[in-house]
Design a protein that fits this description.
71% of the residues lie in helices and 8% in strands. By secondary structure, the protein is of the alpha+beta class. Among the domains are: 1-8 and 31-81, no CATH class; 95-159, Serine Threonine Protein Phosphatase 5, Tetratricopeptide repeat, CATH 1.25.40; 163-243, Serine Threonine Protein Phosphatase 5, Tetratricopeptide repeat (Alpha Horseshoe), CATH 1.25.40; 401-599, 2-Layer Sandwich (Heat Shock Protein 90), CATH 3.30.565. Strand 4 and strand 5 (528-535) form a beta hairpin. Helix 5 (83-99) packs antiparallel against helix 6 (103-119), helix 9 packs antiparallel against helix 10 and helix 15 runs antiparallel to helix 16 (310-349). The longest helix has 49 residues, at 352-400. The two termini are 60 Å apart. Residues 1-19, 329-344 and 543-550 have low confidence and may be disordered.
């Protein structure tokens, strides 16, 4: 308690004196934590606590490491140090909390680090913390939230120049997408994970970083294993093993040998699988990390049990159980010893004067706790307001993005030309009726969130019929629905398809010398409604979609609609846009939940 009080008193003096220089005079990269802590320079002592915490984490003394980081953080907070110093400590504290399975604290520390990174406008730190937050949500089995934070990091990482850090972050993005794939089992997310891991591998090769290359190859192995392509998965493992150096990549070797043993087990080659499992066990024991050793014995158990060698399997299971039991006992013993040590230290150092000082400390802690509570309440309120504002902005953007007003003017002009050319009153009346119905549906869609598939099909047919007046002989279209689909009962968000159809007519068929065709197909698969929109137009212009504007406009509209749908109904709707077969035309795939009238 005496030491704690002196630290607080020292921090208060620094705060009052307005000291803001946090550079350590001996922090030249050679000074160890012991020398830093012994320095009379308080800046060096704070840095010493950080360095010592890293050593304690390596020794799995997590509570002691957290205590050191708290001392460093208190100094940085009270001495006006730059935000990056505080953020670094918060990230370390979040990592320790996550290792202790204290996910609420890990999330809290990461959010504080994120706030500091945003204030400093540091894109690299923001991306790193966002991916750490995503990992916490993955640990909490909330991969949908994890993928939201992962997506926020993407533009920040893509802006970075090639570096070891970029390769590391791309590998983390890969891990987050692959975890999401494992959770919801939609292959598109495994494909996304492969897209980013290949970028990570390319960057790691460019900067010649072996470790990140090994990690990327290990991720590729996991992706191909999930697809059942075991030979390709083994090839990635072998590439990584060639790059590993004993004594340098020990942790990577444990993973690679374990993964190869597991793959061979699935392929039925139990003899070779056991050989690689033994290698995995060897490197796990060299790492002296009991949880890894336990995993190695678990793999050996699976191999021997599947091979029918039940005696060896039982031996491996007992080894695994013994390690797990000892881990639990060691954790309990360590906690008791640390508590006993703190109690004896406080008992030996307690004096009458310290009792008076203790009262003052509790007052300071109470005031600090009240301030922290106010800050947390303010932060949560701000987050809630930002969330509501985002929803309102999305809804407003959707209302502004209804049917392109140029269409109405162009269509009216086309009807005028048609009237002059054809002089057919009945045909004019029919087309005017279609046009007025389109206008009415467009305006009413502002107030209607959902329409039936049947209504959407009728609307699209009338819309395309009017477009054909504008562009006679330019294109044809088909709109179909699976016979098993209850088109008069199933609901979809209003105006979700029209932007893509408009894009095909206005831009996809522009400048082509053949007849265009648009196909829209509705089908039901399980509890999901799938919509396919495809044309045979010019296709996407690689790398230039955003510059063209029309593709990104349609994408933004559906992205907003799906965002609101997922938010309000807690669904997992998604969509994708790609070139069609043979790189001709555009193919849009929309995945929506199967919603009936009574569900909304």
């Amino acid at each position: 308690m005496k030491h704690t009080f002196l630290i607080l008193l020292w921090l208060i003096v620094i705060r009052v004196s307005g000291q803001g220089n946090c550079d350590c005079s001996i922090a030249d990269g050679k000074a160890g934590w012991s020398l830093l802590l012994q320095s009379p320079d308080k800046n060096c002592q704070a840095l010493g606590y950080e360095v010592y915490a890293e050593e304690l984490v390596k020794g799995k003394k997590l509570d002691s490491a957290m205590y050191c980081l708290e001392n460093a953080l208190n100094f940085y907070l009270y001495s006006n140090c730059p935000p990056f110093r505080q953020a670094a400590v918060y990230k370390q504290m979040a990592s320790i909390a996550e290792n202790k399975a204290d996910f609420s604290s890990a999330l809290s520390f990461n959010l504080k680090a994120l706030e500091l990174a945003e204030k400093a406008n540091n894109g690299l730190e923001r991306a790193s913390v966002l991916l750490n937050i995503a990992q916490v949500f993955n640990r909490l089995k909330q991969s949908d939230k994890g993928i939201e934070y992962t997506r926020q990091s993407l533009p920040l990482v893509e802006k970075m120049n090639a570096s070891v850090t970029k390769a590391e972050l791309l590998n983390k993005i890969t891990a987050r997408y692959f975890y999401y794939f494992q959770d919801i089992q939609q292959p598109v997310f495994a494909d996304t994970a492969e897209y980013y891991v290949r970028q990570a591998l390319s960057v790691a090769r460019e900067v010649q970083n072996i470790k990140e290359q090994i990690i990327a190859l290990t991720r590729l192995n996991a992706i191909y294993e999930s697809r059942g392509e075991y030979k390709k998965a083994l090839d990635f493992i072998d590439q990584a093993l060639v790059m590993c150096v004993q004594g340098v990549h020990g942790r990577q070797l444990t993973t690679l040998y374990g993964d190869k043993g597991n793959l061979l087990r699935q392929m039925g080659d139990f003899k070779e699988a056991r050989r690689f499992a033994d290698s995995c066990l060897y490197y796990c024991e060299a790492e002296k990390y009991p949880p890894l050793i336990s995993n190695a014995w678990s793999l050996i158990y699976d191999i021997e049990n599947q091979a029918g060698n039940f005696k060896e399997a039982l031996f491996a299971r007992n080894k695994e159980k013994h390690i797990n039991d000892s881990l639990s006992s060691a954790d309990r013993a360590r906690a008791v010893n640390e508590l006993e040590k703190k109690y004896n230290q406080a008992k030996n150092e307690r004096t009458i004067r310290e009792l008076a000082q203790q009262k003052q400390i509790w007052i300071l802690i109470g005031v600090a706790g009240l301030l922290v509570a106010l800050v947390i309440a303010f932060f949560l309120r701000q987050q809630s307001l930002k969330h509501k504002q985002k929803i309102l902005e999305t809804e407003q953007r959707l209302n502004r993005a209804r049917m392109n007003p140029h269409f109405f003017f162009n269509a009216l002009a086309s009807l005028q030309s048609f009237a002059i050319r054809e002089n057919d009153g009945q045909a004019i009346a029919v087309n005017l009726s279609k046009f007025s119905h389109i206008m009415r549906e467009t305006l009413e869609s502002t107030y209607k969130e959902y329409v039936t598939v049947e209504q959407e099909i009728d609307f699209l047919r009338e819309y395309l019929d009017v477009q054909k007046i504008r562009f006679p002989q330019k294109f044809s279209f088909t709109i179909e629905a699976d016979p098993d689909l209850e088109t008069d009962e199933v609901q979809i968000p209003a105006m979700i398809i029209q932007p893509f159809v408009e894009n095909s007519v206005e831009h996809g068929f522009s400048g082509i010398d053949y007849t265009g065709n648009i196909r829209v197909y509705f089908s039901k698969q399980g509890k999901e409604l799938r919509i396919l929109i495809e044309d045979n137009g010019k296709g996407l212009i690689t790398g230039n979609q955003d510059k063209e504007g029309h593709v990104s406009r349609a994408s933004q509209i559906i992205r907003d609609r799906i965002y609101l749908l997922n938010l309000k109904l807690r669904t997992k709707a998604s969509f994708s846009i790609d070139n069609g077969n043979g790189q001709q035309g555009v193919q849009v795939k929309i995945h929506l939940p199967l919603l009936y009238k009574e569900d909304i």
